[in-house]
């Protein structure tokens, strides 16, 4: 069985977990704290980043969330998440890159730095200015998801795809860390409520990062604001 090296608030691991869940692929979670720079983990991935997916029986090691997702798309027929015409597939990949890069850079990464890494690794207080800037950036990004959902059933088009999984992964971590103000974003909130109710997503709602409690609404599938 696959083993997925991850920690609860890794958005890229969450994206892979959502895809595994949608495709019905079994796996075991292996807790990895990449900031500890464990030698055995660095031997698998010299970049020292999660996720890493391993199939011990085949000595197969997959690194990088997008590489893992592409591998699963190519090897598991169920629930294709990069589908449609060449144009549709290009749009899906564009949006995955948007959430993995821009959303992560502007919102998820600074929230993780200020509210997780500083507490766990450095035993330091968060920078209030950095938190305000991340939350301000989140408003702009959710304006964009609102725009997409005004014109499409799902973020990438008419059917659920990897863009939705990438977005849900990033947004859920930002929401856990208190960085999302849902007021004025009903379209995205409605989409996110639906996503939270999916079997692939629900196990993550009960998971907690040690010493960091999420907002009260975090695990409420029917949250209001």
How much of the sequence lies in strands comes to: 5-15%
General shape? globular
Report the sheet with the most strands, covering strand number, pairing sense and barrel closure.
Answer: 4 strands, mixed
Q: First CA to last CA: what distance?
A: 40 Å
Protein structure class: alpha+beta
CATH-defined fold name of the largest domain:
Glutathione S-transferase Yfyf (Class Pi), Chain A, domain 2
The domain count comes to 2
Total strand segments: 4
Description:
- With 225 residues, this protein is an alpha+beta fold.
- It has 8 helices and 4 strands; from the N terminus they run E-H-E-H-E-E-H-H-H-H-H-H.
- The protein folds into 2 domains: 2-75, Glutaredoxin (3-Layer(aba) Sandwich); 86-205, Glutathione S-transferase Yfyf (Class Pi), Chain A, domain 2 (Up-down Bundle).
- 54% of the residues lie in helices and 8% in strands.
- The chain has a 4-stranded mixed β-sheet with strand order 2-1-3-4, covered by helices on one side.
- Helix 5 crosses helix 7 (186-196).
- The model has no long low-confidence stretch (mean pLDDT 96).
Write the layout of secondary structure elements.
Blueprint: E1 2-6, H1 11-23, E2 27-31, H2 39-44, E3 52-55, E4 60-63, H3 65-75, H4 86-122, H5 128-151, H6 162-176, H7 186-196, H8 202-205
Parallel strand pairs: 1-2
Antiparallel strand pairs: 1-3, 3-4
Helix pairs in contact: 1-3, 1-6, 4-5, 4-6, 5-7
